[in-house]
Each structure stands twice: as structure tokens, then as C-alpha cells.
Automatic annotation (TrEMBL):
GO molecular function per UniProt: hydrolase activity
Residue runs in coiled coils: none
Organism of this sequence: Butyrivibrio proteoclasticus (strain ATCC 51982 / DSM 14932 / B316) (Clostridium proteoclasticum)
Protein name in UniProt: NCAIR mutase-related protein
One BP annotation, GO: 'de novo' IMP biosynthetic process
Domain PurE residue range list: 124-255
Lineage, top ranks: Bacteria, Bacillati, Bacillota, Clostridia, Lachnospirales
Length: 255
């Protein structure tokens, strides 16, 4: 149950549209569902303001489907599935209940079951900037995460330090200076986060990616650069963790 639904239930009791016993019964529903192989958190939306998300990697296609259907059955409007393989997405499409809407983006490996994203309904502004085109899969994971949580997302892709004038042109700077929070995503040496952090007056969430040649050590070089940023107001999430950045940005944007 989400906060809005709780308020509606209490209002219904107040107006006499629902009796106290029925309301208590609904509130007593277990805060998680024990499925044997998983225990999806059905009260997370009420407790934290953002509903349960499925990390698809490492789960079987059947498990992804069963967990998603259970969450929808318990009243969750939309279910975000991250790191979802094409195989799992195909299985989901072929075996889901007919009434469940489902979309899949193979580029960022994001699946969405249930109510779909309407970017026009987003609030505030989260700007996502990438160093290069190769960072876009991580950026889209962040963007879709933020959007499904009700945020407006503006994308500035391929504005890295190898051509810094792309970041400094008027349109990009206008977006940066009017953002509530910025997600800076880069591989290689990860310098974009420091540059953006030195320009913006809002929190910057840095996401190192595993993009780069051998000495980038699968994103470790970018991670260490971002952790050692001299720009104030820069925080760092794990390598390729677009989901974590999008979630954190949503929490900041909605305060």
C-alpha cells in the first residue's frame, strides 16, 4: 500500500464508506510476501515513498515474472526490473497475464510491468549528463528509474571533457543551472563530475562507468577520480549503478 492509498482508506473510514474492521484487515496484510525463493516488500512504497524494485540479474526468467506479478497483485502500480536480460524479457512477454502491460528497453536492460512511464507528468528537474555515448546505457537506467518515481528528467548526452565546449553551450548551461539535482555519468578518467560540480549550484551525483581501456580497470579509475573530486557537493555511487543514482536523485528532487 502506498501513502496515497493509505490516506484514501483513512478518509473512507472517516466518511463511513468503509468500516473499521475492513480497514484493519487491509492494514494487517503482511508487509512482505513469502514466495519461498523471494520475499517481495509490499509495504516499501508506504514506508519509503518508492515501491519495491526487482534486480533482474541472477534471477531466472520465471522468478522475475512471478515476483512482478505478485507485486502488481498486491497493489503496486508499476514494477521496475533492472538488469533484465533479453531472454527474461521474452519469457515475460510470452507468459505474463494478458492484462499486464510490459515494455522492455534492451539498451539499458530495463523492464517495466504495469502502469507505464509518462515523462510529461514528472515534477522538478533532474539533469543527466554523460561523458560519451558509450555511457548512455547506464544513464538510461538512471533516467527511467527517476521517471518511474515521478520526476522530470532532462538528458544531456555526450558532453564530456574531450570537447568541453559541448557542455558550456547556452542550452546545456541553462539546463544545468536550473536543475534540482544532476547525475554526471562518465567512464575513462571520470572528469565530467568535477567539471559539472564546479558549475552547478545543486547536488551532483557522480556515476563512474566501466567504459574505458585497460588501465581504467573496469571503472575503478573513474570511481577513484570521482571520490577525489575537488568540487564541493559531489557524491558518488558504485560503478555502473544508474539505478542507485536515479533513486537518490529522486529523493533529493522531491524534498
Amino acid at each position: 500500500m502506498e501513502e496515497k492509498e493509505l490516506l484514501e482508506l483513512l478518509e473512507a473510514v472517516k466518511k463511513g464508506e468503509t468500516n473499521v474492521q475492513d480497514a484493519v484487515l487491509k492494514l494487517r496484510q503482511a508487509p512482505f510476501e513469502d514466495m519461498g525463493f523471494a520475499r517481495p516488500d509490499t509495504h516499501r512504497g508506504l514506508r519509503q515513498g518508492a515501491a519495491e524494485v526487482i534486480f533482474g540479474q541472477g534471477k531466472t526468467p520465471e522468478q522475475n515474472l512471478m515476483i512482478a506479478e505478485k507485486l502488481l497483485e498486491k497493489g503496486q502500480k508499476s514494477v521496475l526490473i533492472t538488469r533484465m536480460s533479453q531472454e527474461a524479457a521474452n519469457y515475460f512477454t510470452d507468459n505474463k497475464k494478458k492484462e499486464i502491460e510490459f515494455t522492455y528497453d534492451s539498451y539499458c536492460k530495463i523492464g517495466i510491468a504495469g502502469e507505464q512511464i509518462d515523462p510529461e507528468k514528472g515534477v522538478g528537474k533532474i539533469v543527466i549528463a554523460t561523458g560519451g555515448t558509450s555511457d548512455i546505457p547506464v544513464a538510461e537506467e538512471a533516467g527511467k528509474t527517476a521517471e518511474i518515481m515521478g520526476n522530470k528528467v532532462v538528458r544531456l548526452y555526450d558532453v564530456g571533457v574531450a570537447g568541453i565546449h559541448r557542455l558550456l553551450e547556452k542550452h546545456a548551461m541553462d539546463e544545468i543551472m536550473s536543475a534540482n539535482v544532476i547525475i554526471a555519468i562518465a567512464g575513462m578518467e571520470g572528469a565530467l563530475a568535477s567539471v559539472v560540480g564546479g558549475l552547478a549550484d545543486c547536488p551532483v551525483i557522480a556515476v563512474p562507468t566501466s567504459v574505458g581501456y585497460g588501465a581504467s580497470f573496469g571503472g575503478l579509475s573513474a570511481l577513484l577520480s570521482m571520490l577525489n573530486s575537488c568540487a564541493s557537493g559531489v557524491s558518488v555511487v558504485n560503478i555502473d549503478n544508474g539505478f542507485g543514482a536515479g533513486y537518490l536523485a529522486s529523493m533529493i528532487n522531491k524534498k
